[in-house]
What does this fold into?
Amino acid sequence: MQTTAQAWLVLTLTNSPFLLGAISAFQWIPVTLLSVVGGVLADRLPKRSLLIATQAMLMVLALVLALLAWTHSVRYWHVAVLAVLLGLVTSLDMPTRQAFFVEMVHHDDLMNAIALNSALVNVGRVVGPAIGGLIIAAAGVSAAFFLNGLSFLAVIGALALMQMKPAEPVLPRPLVGHIKEGLGYVRRTPEILTILVLLAAISTFVLNFSNVLIPVMARAILAGDAQTFGLLMSALGAGSFLAAIILAAASRRGPETGLIYAGAVASSLTVFMLGFVRGFHQAAALSFIGGVSMVVFSASSNSFVQALVPDHLRGRVMSIYSVLFAGVAPLGALLTGGVMDLWGPRAGFLVGGSLGLLAIVTVALWSRGLPPASHVTPGL
It folds into this structure.
């Protein structure tokens, strides 16, 4: 909801896809730079206490933006500053959340928990914006920010009531040593390395649905209003929810690389085809397909990595995942927004989808030359 309201607010204030992309950059650059440090803290400190602190800070930021929007005093620079602060908190919150859920379940339920966790994380990234779009149409952006702020009370209460199994202790060592250990594990595990490289490429070129692509589709291509935006985001959310249910039901079989590549191809093709849309119904249908394919790719990638990584490295490896999944978003948002400003809104969809397909082929060919895990020299 926060992402959606923020995107619509920036477009309303500036009418510039490039400045919208810049806000995404302000928000995610701190994640890119600091998530690995956040992953080390997640492995060394009590995760529940960290999450309660980060969720409280996120609540304050949402309520500040709600107040600025409600009083009609909000300016672009306000949104930019709050986006940077949001990114700083997220750089600690995201890897901690990714690593935390394994402390709550028995080993026999781990695969199902991984699938549910990754599916819900990705559904939340789409269903939340879908609801946010409808709320913006009905009550304005300030209502979306305010409801988002209130929602953190439920999260903090749930965290306070949880009972977890003891976490595996992490041996104390310098910060750089912890970071090298996580990076070294990724480098020595070709299966994870390949998926993370693919994740970085698709996140950069394709997975900008909620923060750039759909807002521009609604406003610039379809000449719609907030209601159009909300309906498109609802279609995206419906597809995501359906994919999450299917993936969770099939989780006992474990993650499959075929699903990851299928989701990547479908997401790239969907973005490319959105560049040719002429009417709302076409856009809604493709948004639904985009929701399905995005969650299939993202949730399957998350499950694949989590299923392989050992618990004592989970925070650090998932911080790398977080950087490549969300931290590269500034590059993609700036690229997409810049292309749209230079060559028109449709060009952003065509270029993004084409680069996504090219990246899939490149990663698939590159991965064939990687040595098996047992033959890779340990260390960095």
